[in-house]
Amino acid sequence: MKKTLVLGASDNPARYSFRAVHQLKQHGHEVVPVGIRKGQVAGLAIHTDRPAAADVDTVTLYVGPQNQPAWYDYILDLNPKRIIFNPGTENAELERLAQQRGIQTEEACTLVMLSIGQY
Question: Gene3D superfamilies from the xrefs (predicted)?
Answer without folding.
Answer: NAD(P)-binding Rossmann-like Domain
